[in-house]
Design brief:
The structure holds two protein chains of two kinds. Chain A has two domains: 2-83 and 389-477, Urease, subunit C, domain 1 (Roll); 84-383, Metal-dependent hydrolases (TIM Barrel), CATH 3.20.20.140. By secondary structure, chain A is of the alpha/beta class. In chain A, α4 crosses α5 and α7 (258-270) runs parallel beside α8. Helix content of chain A is 33%, strand content 21%. Chain A has helices at residues 2-13, 117-124, 154-157, 177-209, 218-226, 236-245, 258-270, 289-295, 322-328, 348-357, 362-367, 371-376, 425-430, 436-442, 448-453, 455-472, and strands at residues 29-37, 45-53, 56-61, 71-74, 79-82, 84-89, 127-132, 140-147, 158-168, 250-255, 277-281, 299-301, 306-310, 317-321, 333-335, 394-397, 408-413, 416-420. In chain B, α6 crosses α7. The longest helix of chain B has 23 residues, at 2-24. By secondary structure, chain B is of the alpha/beta class. In chain B, the strands form three sheets. In chain B, strands 1, 2, 3, 4, 5, 16, 17 and 18 form an eight-stranded mixed sheet that branches. Chain B has a six-stranded mixed sheet with strand order 8-11-12-13-14-15. In chain B, strands 6-7-9-10 form a four-stranded mixed sheet. In chain B, 27% of the residues lie in helices and 19% in strands. In chain B, β17 (472-477) and β18 (480-484) form a beta hairpin. Classes of the chains: A alpha/beta, B alpha/beta.
């Protein structure tokens, strides 16, 4: 009743509301009521309420008092869980790696294409945060960005900018490990060299200002000049590396084989970024589990989860389910969805289900797609579980997340409803609910290739249509628009 | 990336083979085995709660909640889990040779690996001389290849998973006198992979390259080699649409007598229909002893088989994906009064009424959102719909589900899982991978359900069958444990 009253009130006010994309207008207070809540941290609540205020979760529990002015969404019979997080994705950008091996000055911001269908797919699959980063085919890549899959520009999509730098200790294509490490060492040597020269130059400049001539040897000049350097003095090429060596930047380090792990740790310790390093591991790396356990750094696994190796002598094949090894070592790992959209592995919750099938505990498997990636990204204060104070990135599922028959019903990002299955035009078409089918046949069989080319436009249209229909759904419009506010963590 | 996947596939195959070899000796076939589970899914839709299956001499002796367990019987008990009949894939595309043991990546796959070009999207096409399209790796996503015309012209052989090229006989368009069993290596690791996924019986489908292709075989995926073949010469496989036609598109002059797909007719759907029709007319003329002639006249031994199909003695399969291909199949079979089984039927949702009206059984699948394997390159698979399978079931069409060439985690069990995600219930899906394929293969008297006197082909799952968190733990063929994952 309360909602209806509010609805009518806002409906009357509708003409005064500036038309904005539907996702940009979050209700001030929102209550998801009656669903089974899997908060990931803490116990499962069989029937409870998640209260959201100003895009943040304010209460989760079985008997949460719902404020009189909150918009209530009945999710009884459904399952509510935190939005899933893709901890390492190259999709959503045009090309994942440069030809140049060392590119710490690059930023994926310049490469993100919000019109990519991938983002729509991510919503459909229940992924609310995507860490877009450079691919493995690099030595030192650029800065990454954590985005949510809604928004018309990279700024609007941003949850956190410049999250991490990418380093690969596995050889860039066309080189081997020796070249890879030589390049890495050379980069840091060159950085030292650059810093010395910069310090010397700064000292000289400071003397010139006072019309004095240099009075000490180069070593002393470097020492004195060091204190004069401000961060702005560093050029683009070196600034991020300096942040890295000061431990101010998270680093995603890709290791392909077990042998890479030790070398990566040594490199990180030597250059001061060990405390902020996150391992992205190929399946073979499970053999370095002792080193990884000692390092106790976050680990990103996948999308391939089974390591298969044939004994060259006996021909016997050994299959290892990698997440089980990490779970047994009590290491926190994150899972990745497969970029191959024809496979069930594209769904993060299915990857978690595979883990359970392979002997990993249910709670750890669920954390591997929510809380642990948030921790790896340094965003666990805001993301990764349903707890008061965190961002309201929430997925409403039709059933248990580890049951493959479960569908994503609704997705909320910062309290904004970003996806509703019953309004998913594309999904409906895949299930035969396609009003265009008849007229299309009359017009001759349009080739799907042509469709794909206009997909971007279709996206916009679908978005507009959704925005249009939302105008009648006045309950979502009870606040002035605070559109485009991005939560930059720069 | 593809090359890496191939090598993984190879490794997986090896594992499966070892699993089979290692486990085969665990049980003596003449002993009595009792398998217990929380649930027994009979395969016809019914469920027995908390029961046991008693197996003796390769056959099921008793099924039920309170069966008497003979003393000295070997007991397999997971303290939970479920039992289903061994899965049956009625349209499996088996790598018939040992190709997977020593895989040679295609030239395009090598180039792809070398140049790491994420944008190239096809493996190139084989020219009339058999060489690979030189531009296959040089054009960007979506752009037309200046050399081979892809994507406007589909490539001849796509990289990655592909139909069993070895069983694609090239000598004629009408080859029902050839049998795919002659190409099948029963020790191929591919069978081990099938068994590891819970599939116990397959119809080894001939390739779809010929208009009227070879005869398929029904084989078991594991067990003693002498017992493996259930039917040597099974259904004749015919194909509609582009599979048999576009391989003739570059209809060039034969190069040094090199007769291949590229030098043969037909080149269009019209041609495919014509070849089909001519073959059946020729068979009628052959029967009457009348002379036959013209291009693509099949040999007498082929016509003899076609005559058998015409008289309903030999079953017929027709592969048709698009709506107009399905309609063509319905038209042609009506013309000659044939009964047949429809394969793939990707666009069945567009002509459901016609299929229902003719009472045509369908072996549907695989289910996908984006086409996997060679289908990704076929222009016929773009209009798949996720509700098709359920629509067929709801319309009362006899429907079986197939994974075709998909294996391992992506195999038939996952197809059932997809079907359930798309709205079908377990009660609906299970018969489509057990009882119904058995019926369509004419083997429902011995396979397809967990019932007394049936052959003991069973799968013991760790949880609910086809669940995302469960897997086949024990697979049994003729009472013999062929896959055993009880120790992890």
């Amino acid at each position: 009743m309360r909602t209806t009253f509010l609805g009518v009130a806002v409906l009357l006010a509708t003409p005064f509301i500036v038309a904005t994309p539907s996702w940009a207008v979050p209700p001030v207070k929102l209550a998801l009521q009656g669903g089974k809540i899997i908060p990931v941290v803490g116990k499962v609540i069989d029937k409870g309420t998640v209260l959201i205020e100003h895009g943040k979760i304010t209460a989760v529990g079985a008997d949460v008092e719902i404020p009189y002015d909150a918009m209530v969404v009945d999710v009884s019979g459904k399952v509510v869980m935190p939005g899933m997080i893709d901890a390492h994705s190259q999709r959503g950008m045009d090309v994942s790696n440069e030809n140049a091996p060392v590119t710490p000055f690059l930023n994926v911001y310049d490469s993100i294409d919000p019109s990519k269908l991938y983002f729509e797919d991510a919503l459909r699959d229940g992924i609310t945060s995507i860490h877009i980063t450079h691919g493995h085919n690099t030595v030192i890549g650029g800065l990454s960005r954590l985005i949510h899959p809604i928004g018309m520009t990279p700024e609007e999509m941003t949850q956190a900018a410049d999250v991490a730098l990418k380093i690969s200790v596995a050889p860039k294509r066309g080189s081997d490990r020796m070249v890879q490490f030589a390049t890495l060492r050379e980069t840091f040597l060159e950085l030292d060299d650059y810093l010395e020269k910069l310090a010397e130059k700064k000292y000289e400049e400071s003397l010139e200002e006072k019309d004095e001539k240099i009075d000490v040897g180069p070593e002393e000049a470097q020492k004195r000049g060091k204190e004069l350097i401000k961060f702005e003095d560093y050029d683009d090429k070196h600034a991020n590396l300096i942040k890295l060596t000061r431990g101010e930047l998270t680093t995603f380090v890709y290791c392909d084989r077990a042998g890479d792990v030790g070398r990566a740790i040594a490199l990180a310790k030597k250059h001061g970024f060990f405390d902020r390093m996150v391992f992205v591991l190929g399946t073979h790396c499970y053999k370095a589990i002792a080193e990884l356990k000692k390092a106790e750094r976050p680990v990103v696994l996948g999308p391939e989860l089974v390591h298969r190796e044939r004994d060259s002598l006996t021909g016997k094949l050994v299959e290892t389910f990698v997440p089980k090894v990490f779970a047994d070592a009590r290491l926190r790992f994150s899972l990745l969805p497969s970029p191959n959209t024809s496979l069930a592995e594209r769904y993060l919750n299915y990857q978690a289900a595979r883990c359970v099938r392979g002997g990993v505990s249910r709670s750890r498997a669920l954390k591997a797609i929510t809380l642990y990636p948030a921790k790896a990204l340094g965003m666990d204060k805001k993301l990764g579980s349903l707890e008061a104070g965190k961002l309201a990135n929430i997925v409403v599922l039709s059933g248990d997340p580890l049951d493959f028959s479960t569908w994503v019903e609704q997705v909320y990002i910062k309290g904004i409803k970003a996806y509703e299955r019953s309004e998913d035009v594309r999904l409906k078409q895949l299930f035969g609910d396609d009003p265009a089918e008849v007229s299309e046949e009359a017009n001759g069989d349009a080739d799907k290739k042509a469709e794909e080319k206009t997909n971007g436009k279709a996206d916009e249209k679908a978005g507009d249509a959704a925005a249009g229909s939302d105008k009648t759904d006045a309950t979502t419009k009870d606040t002035p628009a605070d559109k485009g506010e991005s939560d930059s963590n720069n | 990336m593809k090359a890496r996947q191939r090598s993984r596939t190879m490794l997986r195959t090896w594992l499966a083979a070892w699993v089979c070899l290692g486990a085969a000796s665990v049980l003596a076939a003449d002993g009595v085995t009792v398998i217990r589970a929380a649930k027994i899914y009979v395969g016809d839709g019914s469920v027995v709660e908390g029961g046991a299956v008693v197996v003796r001499d390769g056959s099921i002796v008793a099924v039920g909640a309170d069966v008497s367990v003979p003393s000295g019987a070997v007991v397999i008990d997971l303290k939970g889990g479920s039992i289903t009949p061994g899965l049956i894939d009625a349209n499996a595309w088996v790598e018939a040779t040992d190709r997977l043991v020593t895989p040679l990546p295609s030239a395009a796959a090598v180039l792809r690996e070398l140049f790491h070009d994420p944008n190239h999207n096809h493996a190139g096409t084989v020219g009339c001389c058999g060489s690979m399209c030189p531009r296959s790796y040089m054009h960007a996503d979506g752009a037309k290849c200046s050399s081979c015309g892809f994507p406007d012209v589909p490539p001849v052989l796509a990289a990655g998973t592909r139909p069993s090229a070895v069983s694609a006989e090239q000598s004629s368009e009408v080859i029902p006198h050839t049998c795919v069993i002659d190409s099948v290596n029963l020790r191929s690791p591919d069978f081990g992979r099938l068994a590891a996924g819970g599939v116990t019986t397959v119809f080894v489908a001939p390739d779809s390259a010929a208009v009227i292709g070879s005869r398929g075989a029904v084989v078991q995926t594991a067990g003693a080699t002498s017992d493996r073949v259930i039917r040597e010469a099974g259904a004749v496989k015919a194909s509609m649409g582009t599979d048999p036609s576009w391989r003739g598109m570059s209809n060039n002059m034969p190069f040094r007598q090199f007769v291949s797909f590229n030098t043969r007719r037909p080149t269009t759907r019209m041609g495919v229909t014509w070849v089909f029709r001519k073959a059946f007319h020729d068979a009628q003329r052959w029967k009457k002893g009348e002379p036959r002639g013209g291009a693509d006249t099949a040999c007498d031994s082929a016509l003899k088989v076609i005559d058998g199909v015409r008289r309903g003695e030999i079953p017929l399969r027709i592969q048709a994906r698009m709506q107009h291909d399905i309609m063509a199949a319905l038209r042609l079979t009506e013309e000659f009064g044939l009964s047949f089984v429809l394969e793939e039927a990707t666009e069945a949702y567009r002509c459901l009424d016609e299929i229902v009206a003719r009472h045509v059984p369908v072996i549907f699948g695989p289910i996908y959102v984006s086409a996997p394997g060679h289908r990704a390159h076929a222009a016929e698979t773009h209009r798949n719909r996720l509700h098709t399978f359920l629509a067929l079931l709801n319309a009362g069409v006899e429907t079986a589900l197939t994974a075709q060439e998909l294996r391992d985690e992506d195999g038939l069990a996952r197809q059932a899982m997809y079907a359930m995600r798309n709205g079908a219930t377990l009660e609906q899906v299970l018969p489509t991978v057990t009882q119904m394929p058995a019926k369509l293969l004419g083997l429902d008297n011995r396979l397809g359900t967990v019932a007394a006197k049936k052959q003991a082909d069973l799968v013991l799952w760790s949880g609910e069958p086809f669940g995302a968190t469960s897997k086949p733990v024990v697979v049994m063929i003729r009472g013999e444990v062929v896959v055993d994952r009880r120790k992890g």
